[in-house]
Write a structure and sequence with these properties.
Blueprint lengths: L3 E6 L6 H14 L6 E6 L5 H8 L4 E5 L16 H6 L4 E4 L2 H6 L4 H13 L3 E6 L3 H5 L3 H12 L5 H4 L3 E4 L13 H18 L2 H6 L1 E5 L7 H5 L6 E4 L6 H9 L3
Helix pairs in contact: 1-2, 1-12, 5-7, 7-9
The structure holds 2-phosphoglycolic acid.
The site of 2-phosphoglycolic acid (PGA) has 13 residues, from strand 8.
Length: 251
C-alpha cells in the first residue's frame, strides 16, 4: 500500500514569524492524523524555525529547491547537506516555476535529484505539461520526457525514496484543477513508464502526487483515484484551515 503524502509548497510566501504562526496552527489541527504523511516546504529562511516548531509532531520538513554541488563558490545557492542540516527530509525538485522562470532543464533536475539522494533527502520530482502541449495532444510526450530524463540513472533503491508530482502547468495557481479523469490518466501513464524503466514493484511502490489548484473542495475525488497518492498544494497550504481540510479529505 502506498501511503498518502500531502505536501504544502509555500513558494515565496511567509516571513519567519508568519511561518511559525502557520505551522503552530497546523500542528494543533492535524495532531491525531497518522494515515497521511504531512510535509511543509517553507522558504529557506524559515526552515530552521519551522523545524523547531514541528519537532516531535507528525509534520515533516521539506525545501523547495536545492543545488547539486556539495559546497563552493555558488553565490545564492543552497546545498543538499545544508538542507539536511536544517532538518529537511524532502526537497521539491524541478517545480514548473523553476523550469519556467529559472530555466531549469531535465538535466539540471536530474543532477539535483541525484545530489538530494546522495545526501539522504527524498526528492519530490515535479513533471507536467503546459496548456499548449495539452492542446497540441503532446501531454504524454512531455510527461515522458520529464519523467525519463529527470530520473535518468536513478537506481531501484533510489526510486523507493522518490515521490513524483504530476503538476499540469495550466492548473497551477489558476483555480482550474485537472478533472479526476485527467489526473488519473496521466498518473496511470507515469506508473506505466516506471514499469518500463524499472519493474512492476517500483511502479507499484512509487507515490505520485497531483498538484495544481488542489482545494478542500476537490481533494476527495482526486484522492479516490487509484493512482493518485497525494497532493502537492500551493495556495491552499498557506492557511492552516484549508491545508488541514485537504489532509482530512484524504482520510
Ligand atoms: P497551487 O500550486 O496549489 O497554488 O495551484 C501547486 C504547486 O505549484 O505546487
Amino acid at each position: 500500500m502506498r501511503r498518502v503524502i500531502i505536501a504544502g509548497n509555500w513558494k515565496m510566501y511567509k516571513t519567519i514569524d508568519e511561518s511559525i504562526e502557520l505551522v503552530n496552527l497546523l500542528k494543533r489541527s492535524v495532531v491525531d492524523i497518522d494515515d497521511v504523511e504531512i510535509v511543509v516546504c517553507p522558504p529557506f529562511t524559515s526552515l530552521s524555525d519551522v523545524r523547531e516548531s514541528i519537532m516531535d509532531t507528525n509534520i515533516k520538513l521539506g525545501a523547495q529547491d536545492c543545488y547539486w554541488e556539495k559546497e563552493g563558490a555558488f553565490t545564492g545557492e543552497v546545498s543538499c547537506a545544508m538542507l539536511k542540516s536544517a532538518g529537511c527530509e524532502y526537497v521539491i525538485i524541478g517545480h514548473s516555476e523553476r523550469r519556467q522562470f529559472f530555466g531549469e532543464t531535465n538535466e539540471m533536475v536530474n543532477k539535483k535529484a541525484k545530489a538530494a539522494l546522495r545526501e539522504g533527502l527524498k526528492p519530490i520530482v515535479c513533471v507536467g505539461e503546459k496548456l499548449d502541449d495539452r492542446r497540441a495532444g503532446k501531454t504524454f510526450d512531455v510527461v515522458k520526457d520529464h519523467v525519463v530524463n529527470s530520473l535518468s540513472g536513478l537506481t531501484r533503491e533510489d526510486m523507493m525514496k522518490v515521490v513524483i508530482a504530476y503538476e499540469p502547468v495550466w492548473a497551477i495557481g489558476t483555480g482550474v484543477v485537472a478533472t479526476k479523469d485527467q489526473a488519473e490518466e496521466v498518473h496511470k501513464y507515469i506508473r506505466g513508464l516506471l514499469k518500463d524503466m524499472y519493474d512492476a514493484n517500483i511502479a507499484d511502490s512509487v507515490r505520485i502526487q497531483y498538484g495544481g489548484s488542489v482545494k478542500p473542495e476537490n481533494i476527495r475525488e482526486l484522492i479516490a483515484e487509484e493512482d493518485v497518492d497525494g497532493a502537492l498544494v500551493g495556495g491552499a497550504s498557506l492557511k492552516a484551515d484549508s491545508f488541514t481540510q485537504i489532509i482530512k479529505g484524504c482520510l
